Amino acid sequence: DRIFKGASKTREKLGVVDELLTYWNLEDAEDTLEELEEALITADFGPRTALKIVDVIRTKIENGDLKTGADIRRELKSSIVGLLTQRGGSSELSLGDTKPAVVLVVGVNGGGKTTSIGKLSHKLSQQGAKVLLAAGDTFRAAAAEQLAEWAERSGSQIVVAKNNKQRPDSLMYETVDRAMREELDVVICDTSGRLHTNTGLMEELAKSKRAIGKRLPGAPHEVILVLDGTTGLNMLNQAREFHQTVGLTGIILTKLDGTARGGAVVSVVDELGIPIKFVGVGETVEDLQPFDAQSFVDALFP
Ligand code: GDP
């Protein structure tokens, strides 16, 4: 399937793990474990997460629980699935009991934010929800136009800035207000992801989040980071910065149908404890799948 195809970059780098384990020999376990750790780091798992995985394997070898290369491979896979599920928590959207549910979506430009919002909106509309989008990237006119196209495609409504002076926080306040008055089910807020004015961007996101909560206490119910699946370890730095500013509750990992480097997301989930909720596997409205840790890991270690 497409996740399998897309995990190609990481899988390629993990090929060396198979080689290591094929010639596994208990006598030189320590050398092999070091090479295994190295291989995981090269495959973008990040030094801390790689060390953690290898430490667990080392202990199990010492206890006599793992004897063959096949045992170790099985343990390697199940420990990554474990990291992705236990550290990550639920991969369901939790939209609360009261309406509207508000989802704030953040991420750097080009990562697939607008596309993912379109896909998510489509999914929710198909489940019968009335969805309202907020074109919160008020700095780029093209961003609002692009989101408006997705609104049409997914059968949802959209609020765009009245003029080029309206700030994102005011737009989001207004959007939530309208959803409350019209008794709509879900609000999804797009945001700016320009990187060149980073501090300004982070302040603006924090303000937008506060404005949403001011209109509707308890909102936003989800704060989703869209991560480009083709990014390597830089993913972790990005995620950390957004998490510090807006407190993330979930991740959408995009472009897994391309030459993705999915390994890096394991360290994001492990270090920040944020679950992956969905994966993007293409450019159409249908190409959003719920995240499944086991099939993700099966794609990395076929
Ligand atoms: P934004 O700047 O973060 O809003 O990013 P966009 O939503 O505009 O997406 C940037 C580019 O990535 C566009 O060309 C999208 O079609 C493409 N894209 C987004 N998600 C996916 C995905 O899951 N798979 C593929 N192949 N392309 C994607």
From TrEMBL:
Subcellular location per UniProt equals:
Membrane
Q: Where is the SRP54-type proteins GTP-binding domain?
A: 275-288
Q: Which residues form the signal peptide?
A: none
Family membership noted in the UniProt record = Belongs to the GTP-binding SRP family.
* Name of this protein: SRP54-type proteins GTP-binding domain-containing protein
Gene source species = [Myrmecia] bisecta
